[in-house]
Fold this sequence. Notes:
The chain is of the alpha/beta class. It has 18 helices and 10 strands.
Amino acid sequence: MTGTLFFNVYCVFLFVCAVFGVHRLWLALIALTADRKDPVPVKKWRRLPHVTVQLPVYNERFVVERLIRSVCSLEYPKGLLEIQVLDDSTDDTTEMISKAITFFGRQGLDIRLIHRSERAGFKAGALAEGLKSAKGELIAVFDADFIPAPDFLARTVHFFTDPQIGMVQMRWGHQNPNDSFLTRLQTVMIDGHFMVDQTARASSNRFFNFNGSAGVWRTKAVLDAGGWQSDTLAEDLDLSYRAQLNGWKFILLTEPSAVQELPRDMRSFKQQQYRWSKGSLEVARKLMWKIITSPVPAKIKIEAFFHLLGNLAYAFVVLSAFISLFFVLFPLNPGALWQYSVDLPLFVICFGSTFLYYFVAQRKLYPNFYARLIYFPLVFASIAGLSLIHVKAIFEVLAGRKTPFVRTPKCGETLTLRTEGPLVKNYRMPLDPIFIFEVLTTCYLVVTVFIAMGRKMYDVAPFLALLALGFLYVTVQSMSRLPLHWRFRWAQRERGQLG
């Protein structure tokens, strides 16, 4: 009886995960059949519009010069281009910006610094401050870790000849995909988001979102939607839904003209995941009722539910992990083994949908996509291993706890084999207290795996081993300060810079 009880509870948790898995499968199938070609503008401007490029910056000494240099290389008439560096920095980043602005200003570019001594509203506050004086009919936004290609504006501005278009989002390319195994895993995850999530929503006329960078907004659409608001950690997602509820249409381009620097260490990556997770849940709490009661089609409301609340699935991954030990200690009676006919399909849906999700993205992007399948097992494991940071976000949103916008540290191209000085250390993320629970969960799962193997429960042992591997990987990477040194040695060897 006890074994049956734990099994049934386990299946309930797995069923919830499977519901989100079915949705993920549906997105993958839509993306698989979507047109491979990007949309084209209905017509081109006879007279190009004025464009303002906003660069929100906070303590980005390692990348800010690269960012400004790349933006100043955009192929667009100087008389129609304004560049705003929205700086909230408290270190020498501001001085570096001033020197760069002086240099490029002498070349005839309209570039200026807007510095705030207080980070009121964080990134959203900085964007809102810049918007007050922006000259452009269109607003392009780039985070500090991005490098736009010279043709970025040429590929995006002509979509705004259609008066219904409010935003154009470009898929993110990757600036440092081969720096470490962690950055390679991130490329798989980000590719999945753009080539499945965003592609499926865009191609099926559902709401999708501006990703916070490498996108262009119509100024009128931003103002019409209420402007940038700082009451969530996902100001980009928040504005996207408000604008689309007001009738504005969005365009997605999957051929990138901008690359992003991926976080190089686990702590930074976890902080980024936490911010995205908590932000989406805050937007759900803020806008879900408005979406439900709006006159938009039911398919948009359903997709918004899964989009904004999708991270709730992580809570059930954690619950499944914690109940697994009891399920192993109190197995089903031999006569009740038929109940595995319930467990197995749910398990297949959860992992099969995740596999197809990433497979579709890799297949659409890379000719050698089969070679990239080697990363999939650790991608799956890492997703599970990150569950606790998402659960932390869930609890904080439920409790109404507000937290500051913590930017993800970027290192640029300044780090070399010997770059381990105080400047780099000042940019490192601190160890999150959730780390203690990650260690305990790792130990818990490892013990559970050994017990399952000892009891010859080979049907559940692989699943438990995958969970244990994910938590172990995240835990070890979180406490290590050495991988930066090793990663750059590995990356330089791959590039032929070391013997």
